[in-house]
Amino acid sequence: MSANRTAYRVMSRNDLTRRLVSHLSGNEAVIAGIGNTNFDLLDAGHRPENFYMLGSMGLAAPIALGVTLAQPDRRVIALEGDGSILMNLGALTTIATLAPANLTVIIWDNGLYQITGKQATATAGPTDIVRVAESCGIPQSYWATDQSHFEQLVTTAVSTNGPHFIAARVDDASATARPERNPVLWRDRFMTGIGTRAERSV
Questions:
Q1: How many CB atoms lie within 10 A of CB 178?
Q2: How would you classify residue 55: left for phi > 0, otherwise alpha for psi between -120 and 50, otherwise beta?
Q3: Does the structure show a pLDDT above 70 at 13?
Q4: Which of 57, 71, 136, 196 is the most exposed, having the fewest neighbouring CB atoms within 10 Å of its CB?
Q5: Are 96 and 83 spatial neighbours (Cβ–Cβ below 8 Å)?
Q6: CATH entry, 5-193, from 3.40.50.970, 1.25.40.10, 3.10.20.30, 2.40.10.340
Q7: Could you give the count of Cα atoms lying within 13 Å of 169 in the half-sphere of its Cβ?
Q8: Ramachandran class of 118: left when φ > 0, alpha when ψ lies in -120 to 50, beta otherwise
């Protein structure tokens, strides 16, 4: 069983994102939730297989699930904040039920709805998001205790059958990168990146 989030070290969200990207072999699809989650992913270096959610909370995990089902030979990672996953906990029950072997969900937990004014989320109190994932039926659910442990969990997730669920306590530092607010642009680039749309000359 996992311990409460307060037992673990608070780490840099941006640093962990860069560590995650460094462990990708090349064609993994990464779907990042709104706000600093996707800002940091862009800051770590754009990849054609990255999708940056703009304005829709709680949809990174469901979209990632859809990609896993459509492309079972591709590793897929959902990056999501604690506030966003709390808005769509039903997605975890669906992931547990369908049990896609190629899916990893990573939660950056700072206990805040950071973009809307830093209101506290339920995970700042009694709610342990890893225990929630376990209870939904995802047994491979873990807190990352420190940076090294996070990298170990990522290495396992991208090389073994899942689904995997990883949560990390992170800071609330503001990200510097900002994806262009053009949903159609990022949709088309992502579809091209995962081979579901032919690249068109502009």
A1: 11
A2: left
A3: yes
A4: 196
A5: no
A6: 3.40.50.970
A7: 13
A8: left
The per-residue pLDDT for range 104-131, each reduced to its tens digit, is: 999 999 998 877 778 999 999 999 999 9
Integer CA distances (angstroms), 19 to 32, 64, 152, 193, in order: 15, 20, 11, 21
Whether the upstream peptide bond of residue 48 has omega within 30° of 0, thus cis, is: no
Condensed to tens digits (0 to 9), the pLDDT of residues 153-165 reads 999 999 999 999 9
Overall pTM > 0.85: yes
Number of other residues whose CB lies within 10 A of the CB of residue 123: 26
Distances 162 to 138, 168, 178 between C-alpha atoms, Å: 9, 18, 31
CA 24/CA 180 separation, integer angstroms: 24
- Give dist(CA 42, CA 47) in Å, integer: 8
pLDDT of residue 3 exceeding 60: no
**Residue ranges of domains in the chain:** 5-193
Q: Which residues, 6+ apart, have CB-to-CB distance to 10 below 8 Å?
A: 110, 169, 170, 171
**End-to-end alpha-carbon separation of the chain, Å?**
52
* Measured distance CA(148)–CA(151) in Å, rounded: 5
Decide: helix, strand or coil at residue 164: strand
Cα separation, 38 vs 75, in Å, equals 18
Q: Which residues contact 184 (CB under 8 A, 6 or more apart)?
A: none
